[in-house]
Amino acid sequence: NAGVTQTPKFRVLKTGQSMTLLCAQDMNHEYMYWYRQDPGMGLRLIHYSVGEGTTAKGEVPDGYNVSRLKKQNFLLGLESAAPSQTSVYFCASSAWRPGEKLFFGSGTQLSVL
Amino acid sequence: DAKTTQPPSMDCAEGRAANLPCNHSTISGNEYVYWYRQIHSQGPQYIIHGLKNNETNEMASLIITEDRKSSTLILPHATLRDTAVYYCIVRGPPTQGGSEKLVFGKGTKLTVNP
């Protein structure tokens, strides 16, 4: 049981390049989330999804797009990367039942030069 | 915005109990209180959660006040490895406008000193 897997673990981009971060969970969870964490800061919610084919904006959605075409995968896209998007990105998932806990991935370190 | 407030930092001596407070004065009756911690830049780790009653597991205890407007996470015998940022969040059921939009605050940086 892998839990929540994030791909890649590290990435360096040049300004203006695009990329997609993949989050995969094998727990049949309905809810999935993308967070970013800047140095010395807390987690900030980018986008989230409450089920296959649905997505919603979080606290800091600008510059990012997401898709949830399959229940087990939640993709985070950067169409034109900017240095301000240099951060650690965490994905999380959860079942929908009350009292269920959130499972986090190990993070993706992204640097935009 | 986060629905919880926590002190930015706390210190604790190794071997002593660490008591981390959290205020959630606007919590709804069906919202749970969850605690997570993050060591260095690792993914946050689940610690404990509760609704109304106090809870205990192998990691910690959670004390929720009777009015549910605040709670305290207790690490009974803190070790150096408990040095981390601790997050308190509230989360409701997925229906009726529940807290699907899970927002974390800045947490409490706990430093356990030798």
| Whole-angstrom Rg of chain A | 13 Å
Question: Helix and strand string of chain A, N-terminal first?
Answer: EEEEEEEEEEE
DSSP summary, beta strand count of chain B: 9
Distance between the termini of chain B: 35 Å
Low-confidence stretches of chain A: none
Element-by-element helix/strand order of chain B:
EEEEEEEEE
**Fraction of residues in β-strands of chain B:** 35-45%
Describe this structure in words.
The complex is a heterodimer of chains A (113) and B (114). By secondary structure, chain A is mainly beta. Helices cover 0% and strands 52% of the residues of chain A. Chain A contains no helices and 11 strands. In chain A, strand 9 and strand 10 (103-104) form a beta hairpin. The mean pLDDT of chain A is 93. Chain B has 114 residues and is an all-beta fold. Helix content of chain B is 0%, strand content 44%. Chain B has strands spanning 9-13, 18-23, 32-38, 45-50, 55-56, 61-64, 70-75, 84-91, 108-113. Chain B has a 5-stranded mixed sheet, with no helix packed on it. In chain B, strands 2-7-6-5 form a 4-stranded antiparallel sheet, with no helix packed on it. In chain B, strand 5 (55-56) and strand 6 (61-64) form a beta hairpin. The radius of gyration of chain B is 14 Å and the shape is globular. The interface between A and B is medium-sized, with 31 and 25 residues.
Provide a brief overview of the structure:
The complex is a heterodimer of chains A (113) and B (114). By secondary structure, chain A is an all-beta fold.
Which terms would index this structure?
heterodimer, A: 113 residues, mainly beta, seven-stranded mixed sheet, 52% strand, B: 114 residues, 9 strands
